[in-house]
């Protein structure tokens, strides 16, 4: 219990210090573009009502979930294929490196030409950016499968889907999870960027609208809300990861204790 409280204190400590510094440093601010934190927080509840959360934040989260899910499925499937077959890896790696080097926001106008300006475009943009860390980490995780375990599985006749389920995916799952964690932060960024192009709702759209109408305190509340959502999603991901990879974290803990 003491360890949990200590970790929780460490997590809360730095944000609390930063908020305190922001509060006192901006207390006497008369700048129109940098209002005091007290004014921003006072505007928060008035701005983000239940109706606005339902109209703007919920669609953003649904787009993020859809794009992220597509990226996970595509990244893991292609990563397993590329990591398992040397010929496929040698053939696809130059092409994958080429597309990985292209920033996803640059592709937004092109994706709009083919997918339109509706939700499909935003989901494709999110998926196009999230897929790379998942794909590359999956490839490296599959390639790092223990050779002794591979030989043992072969000697027991473990092949095909059974080998994939019981050997390859469990072995690569820690690195796949690391790629998914990186992809989540990228997905949040792309969610906002995609909603700045020809959108009629969403968190990114709302923040831009506040900026364009000079509703500066409201704009800052949107930025704070975006940060809170990112933090909440990170905590949720960490919780799911700890449950799904309990065997891995338990093994690491045992190795550190020995």
Beta fraction of the residues?
A: under 5%
Q: Judging by the overall fold, what is the CATH architecture?
A: Orthogonal Bundle
User: What is the C-level CATH assignment?
Assistant: Mainly Alpha
Q: What's the assembly state of these chains?
A: single chain
**Number of strand segments:** 0
What does this structure look like?
By secondary structure, this protein is an all-alpha fold. It has a single domain (54-257), classed as MetI-like (MetI-like fold, Orthogonal Bundle), CATH 1.10.3720.10. It is 83% helix and 0% strand. It is built from eleven helices and no strands. It has helices spanning 2-25, 37-47, 50-84, 86-100, 108-115, 119-143, 147-155, 160-194, 203-212, 216-244, 246-257. α3 (50-84) runs parallel beside α6 (119-143), α3 (50-84) packs across α9 and α8 runs antiparallel to α10 (216-244). The protein is globular, with a radius of gyration of 22 Å. The two termini are 22 Å apart.
């Amino acid at each position: 219990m003491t360890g949990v409280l200590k970790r929780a204190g460490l997590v809360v400590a730095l944000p609390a210090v930063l908020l305190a510094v922001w509060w006192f440093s901006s207390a006497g601010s008369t700048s129109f573009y940098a209002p005091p934190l007290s004014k921003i927080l006072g505007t928060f509840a008035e701005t983000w009502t239940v109706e606005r959360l339902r109209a703007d934040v919920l669609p953003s989260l649904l787009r993020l979930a859809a794009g992220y899910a597509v990226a996970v499925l595509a990244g893991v499937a292609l990563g397993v294929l590329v990591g398992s077959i040397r010929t496929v890896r040698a053939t696809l790696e130059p092409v994958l490196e080429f597309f990985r080097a292209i920033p996803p926001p640059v592709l937004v106008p092109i994706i709009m030409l083919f997918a339109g300006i509706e939700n499909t475009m935003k989901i494709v943009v999110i998926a196009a950016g999230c897929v790379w860390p998942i794909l590359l980490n999956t490839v490296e995780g599959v390639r790092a499968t223990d050779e002794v375990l591979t030989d043992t599985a072969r000697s027991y006749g473990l092949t095909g889907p059974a080998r994939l389920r019981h050997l390859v995916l469990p072995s690569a799952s820690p690195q796949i999870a690391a790629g998914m964690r990186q992809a989540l932060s990228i997905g949040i960024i792309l969610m906002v960027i995609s909603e700045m192009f020809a959108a009629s709702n969403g968190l990114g759209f709302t923040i831009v609208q506040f900026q364009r109408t000079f509703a500066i305190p409201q704009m800052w509340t949107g930025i704070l809300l975006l940060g809170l959502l990112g933090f909440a999603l990170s905590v949720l991901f960490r919780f799911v990861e700890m449950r799904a990879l309990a065997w891995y974290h338990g093994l690491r803990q045992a190795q550190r204790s020995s």
